[in-house]
Amino acid sequence: MTKTMKILRPAVMCFLAMTVVCGIIYTAAVTGIAQLLFPNQANGSIITITLKDGTQKDYGSALIAQKFTGAQYMIGRPMGTTNLSPVSKEQKKLVQERIDWLHSLDPDNTADIPMDLVTKSGSGVDPNITPEAAEYQVARIARERGMNEDDVRAIISKYTTGRFLGIFGEPAVNVLKVNLALDGLL
Fold it and tell me: Can you give the pTM of this predicted structure?
């Protein structure tokens, strides 16, 4: 065995051992535990609906936002990420553009726009909005769909989750589920 081989052998053996432990054993263990304890989340929390003809269609993940822009739909948070300072001119411009867009979508609504409808979430793909942001949109959705506002609120309430264990987090409304329910698919 040459001197170079003596030097490289421990490095190669360590590399192979770590590849097996971290790349195979750890990954298999975490995947197996996730499938066992949280199968829906581990598989993407896909919302699958059986249509009238018996076929099934995937509509998206309950954990990842989808963009809705029609006045008949509940609008979620702006999508995408940003590293802008909350007090930067660029951020203020983006927020004002979103405010203007929401006012053009519902010109009769003079209520204050909840912050989560005009600012992006940390992940940029938050599927939820606050109950206040959902309530802000009730009259527009009811008007556009020819529904009673209380019926829209009932759908929103059905897809609102409370705090985890009653103390962690904030109540949240899943935008995709509400819109699917409004379309009569859930």
Answer: 0.80
